Amino acid sequence: MILLDGKKTSEAIQREIAAEVADIKAKGGKVPHLAAILVGHDGGSMTYVNNKVLACENVGFESTLLHYEDDITEEELLNKIREINQDDTIDGLIVQLPLPRHISSTRVLEVLDYKKDVDGFHPLNVGHMVAGLPAYLPATPYGILQLLERYNIETKGKHCVVVGRSNIVGTPISILMSKCTYPGESTVTICHRNTVDLAHHTRQADILIVAVGKPGLITADMVKEGAVVIDVGTTRVEDATRARGWRLRGDVDFDHVAPKCSYITPVPGGVGPLTIAMLLKNTLRAAKKEVHD
Ligand SMILES: Nc1nc2c(c(=O)[nH]1)N[C@@H](CN(C=O)c1ccc(C(=O)N[C@@H](CCC(=O)O)C(=O)O)cc1)CN2
Ligand SMILES: [Mg+2]
C-alpha cells in the first residue's frame, strides 16, 4: 500500500509556482493577485481562507482578504464583486462557500467575472470543463488529478466509482475522470444518497473517490483488493484528547481499508492540501491569461 502524500505533493507544486513567480518578478511582469471574500465567522471557512492568504504570501502572490459580517445583503455583496470584476490589478477572485442562507450562491457565482473565477464555479467555466474547452478546473478535483498524475497511477479503462455528487467535487471529478485525456479515460459510476446497495457499486471500483462528508462511510468490505482510494471527506468530530477538542475524519475507515489498497489518501494530509495548491495554480494561470483570452 502506498500513501498518496497530499502535503508533500502540495509543497512541491507550491515550490514550482514560487519559482515561476520569482521569474515573473525578475522580468518585471505582473505578480499574480488573488482576492478572497469571506462572509461571516464559520470556523472552518475562516481557517481555509486564512490558509489561502498565507499560501499566497508563501509563493510570492499578492492577496486581498475581504471579510464581511453575515448580515451583509446579497445586493451589497454583488456590488463588491462587480467592483472587483472591474479592478485590473486583481487576477483571481474567490467567494468562500458556504454563504449565509439569505445570499444565493448561484447569483454570486454568476455575477463573478468568469475570467477571474479561479474556483471554476461560474457556469461558463463548468460548461467549458464539460465540453473539454479551456477552463479553470475546481481546485479539489484538479488536486485529485494531480495526485493521480504525479504518482503515475493508470486510469485508462479503469472503473472509477465516485460517491457524492456535489458541484464542488463529485460532479466535476466524475466528468474529468471520463475525459479522453490523462488522468481520465475511466468508466465512471456516480453514487449518491439514493443509490441502492452502495457497497455493490464501491466493490466494483478500481478507483474509488469518496466526497460526501460522512465519517467512516466506506468500510473494508466495500472495497476491492488493490483499489486506489481517494478520500475527500474532512469532517470535524469531537475528540477530547486533542487540545482543540476535535479532529478531522475522512469518509473512509482508513485503518481497515488501507491494507486492501494499492494507493490511498490519508485524512488529513491527502486531498485537502492540494486544494490550496491548485487554487494558486489557477491564479497563476489567470495572471498569465492562459485560460481565457
Ligand atoms: N470558494 C470555495 N469554497 C469552498 C471550497 C473551495 O474550493 N472554494 N472547498 C471547501 C473548503 N476548502 C477550501 O475552501 C478546503 C477544505 C479542506 C482543506 C484542507 O486543507 N484540509 C486539510 C485539513 C485542514 C484542517 O486541519 O482543517 C486536509 O484535508 O488535510 C483545504 C481547503 C468548501 N468551500
Ligand atoms: Mg460530493
Automatic annotation (TrEMBL):
Recorded hits in InterPro entries, A to Z, give: Aminoacid_DH-like_N_sf (IPR046346), NAD(P)-bd_dom_sf (IPR036291), THF_DH/CycHdrlase (IPR000672), THF_DH/CycHdrlase_cat_dom (IPR020630), THF_DH/CycHdrlase_CS (IPR020867), THF_DH/CycHdrlase_NAD-bd_dom (IPR020631)
The pathway that the record names for this protein is: One-carbon metabolism; tetrahydrofolate interconversion
- A Gene Ontology molecular function term of the record: methylenetetrahydrofolate dehydrogenase (NADP+) activity
> Which residues are in the Tetrahydrofolate dehydrogenase/cyclohydrolase NAD(P)-binding domain?
138-290
Tetrahydrofolate dehydrogenase/cyclohydrolase catalytic domain residues: 4-119
Gene Ontology cellular-component terms for this entry are: cytosol
Relate the protein's function as given in its record.
Catalyzes the oxidation of 5,10-methylenetetrahydrofolate to 5,10-methenyltetrahydrofolate and then the hydrolysis of 5,10-methenyltetrahydrofolate to 10-formyltetrahydrofolate.
* Family to which this protein belongs: Belongs to the tetrahydrofolate dehydrogenase/cyclohydrolase family.
State the oligomer form and interacting partners. Answer: Homodimer.
Protein name as annotated = Bifunctional protein FolD
The lineage, from the top, is: Bacteria, Pseudomonadati, Bacteroidota, Cytophagia, Cytophagales
